[in-house]
Design a protein that fits this description.
MetI-like fold, single chain, 13 helices, mainly alpha, 0% strand, globular
Length: 310
């Protein structure tokens, strides 16, 4: 177990280096001058040159990259141009809001998706299976931003049941969390349905039925546990997709998380914030993937974390 964790962490180091290097290149080849954006259109050329030198943007890219990697190792990304404070401190301040949104949406998606998948997979080909399959396909077809806008129009503007934007109360969390969860719910439901339907044909399921167990006991006690492995996999791998979806959802609902921070930073060419946020998100996604790998052996003793059969 320890050897596998160390190997995963070593691979993670290269992944983090690749993510940090990629964002360094992307933000610098994008059009626009950060100094000109910060000073405004009325700034004098001398002022622009002075600010560019102070920010270190007049140095060759190789020199900037070397300094940047040194700062990454120390988790120091410099001060934000917009907020005039350390970039990582600004990202960490916004992180709890994004974590709250992702935790709520993941819980909704897993609970509802597992329930729908169990109901559909327990009787494959039945009426309920067809209804669930049609609903999941529809949920995956609608863009997240469109779902969010429709929710605002219906539940905030028309019915006035929930706030349309902002944060601070559980009511503010409902619409963005459900919006972010719906496509993921469909994914979990379809994967669970396929896994349960396949598991229900296994010989040990027939053995359990021959012992007199009810269909509910067979479904929950035997089929569900072995069907969770692909679900755990998709949850771990889908964390990156949730982070990307959170950027859209946070901006639709004005949720004060990392997503809105990154959009503002990109619009204003705030290199330090973009780099700090990207590096942190890459680390979070890598950590979730590691946890998903280690969870396999706990769900199915026949599988070791190194991927070999027991």
């Amino acid at each position: 177990m320890i050897r596998v964790i160390v190997k995963r962490l070593l691979v993670g180091v290269f992944v983090m280096w690749g993510a940090a290097s990629l964002i360094f290149v992307i933000v610098r080849v994008a059009p626009g001058d950060p100094a000109s954006l910060l000073l405004g259109p009325d700034a004098e050329p001398e002022q622009v040159r002075e600010l560019t030198a102070r920010l270190g943007l007049d140095q060759p890219l190789v020199v900037q990259y070397v300094h940047y990697l040194g700062d990454v190792v120390r988790l120091r990304f410099g001060d934000s141009y917009l907020f005039n404070r350390p970039a990582m401190a600004e990202v960490f301040e916004r992180l709890p809001a994004t974590a709250e949104l992702m935790l709520a949406s993941t819980t909704i998606a897993v609970v509802i998706g597992l329930g729908l998948g169990l109901l559909a997979g327990g009787r494959p080909g039945g009426a309920l299976d067809r209804v669930v399959s049609a609903c999941t396909i529809a949920l995956q077809s609608f863009p997240t931003f469109w779902i969010g806008i429709m929710f605002i129009l219906i539940f905030a503007l028309s019915l006035r049941l929930l706030p349309s934007a902002g944060a601070g109360t559980p009511q503010h969390l409902i619409l963005p969390a459900v919006t972010l969860a719906l496509p993921f719910t469909a994914t979990v439901a379809r994967l669970t349905r396929s896994s349960v339907a396949e598991t229900m044909r296994e010989p040990y399921i027939q053995t359990a039925r021959s012992k007199g167990l009810t269909e509910r006991q067979v479904l929950l006690g035997h089929s569900l546990r072995n069907s969770l492995i692909p679900v755990v996999t998709i949850v771990g791998l889908h964390m990156g997709g949730l982070m990307g979806g959170a950027v859209v959802v946070e901006n639709v609902f004005a949720w004060p998380g990392v997503g809105t921070l990154v959009v503002d930073a990109v619009a204003n060419r705030d290199y330090t914030v973009v780099q700090a946020a990207t590096f942190l998100v890459a680390g979070i996604v890598m950590a979730f993937n590691l946890v998903a790998d280690l969870a396999y052996s706990q769900l199915d003793p026949r599988i070791r974390v190194d991927g070999d059969a027991a």
